[in-house]
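A brief tutorial aside. Many learners find it easier to grasp structure tokens once they have seen a single protein encoded end to end. The record that follows does exactly this for Tryptophan-rich protein TspO. Read the sequence first, then the structure, and try to relate runs of similar tokens to stretches of the chain.
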Amino acid sequence: MRPLTLAKTAGAAFAAAGLGALATTPAVQSPWYDRLKKPGFQPPRMAFPIAWNVLYSDIAVVSASTIDTLNDRGDSDQARAYTRALAANLVLNAGWSWVFFNRKRLGAAALGAGVLTASSVDLARRAAAVNAPAGAALAAYPAWCAFATVLSTRIWQLNR
């Protein structure tokens, strides 16, 4: 994996994290968030930044490796397709925080989490097609997104 590719994927992943945090941080400290009914399976607040920092790092490393492997194989079209899929995924990722925390659209956020999960599954599938261990390493991302979809949906149901 080339350092420049890693810098690009890490920059993109952590830009998505930063944009999401702009919507999330003020909201989780607000009375609105405190008043939301949350299911018993909601993790403690501290679990989210820990999980997401690990996942964003995983996304950056696996994506850089995947892109460089594809380019090294001479498959630049697939490398560009993976890069587009990564960009779309990170937009969905950051966008979820804005829909849920900033716009307070719980139903739309639940739907968005489902779309993010599907996009994350696709990203892991693409990485696994290039390098099975890399795809396996990225599998935690769609698993966490699937959990987030269930959690978002339940919060929406509890707060209609």
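Self-check: The domain at 3-158 is CATH 1.20.1260.100 (Ferritin). If you spotted this yourself, you are ready for the next section.
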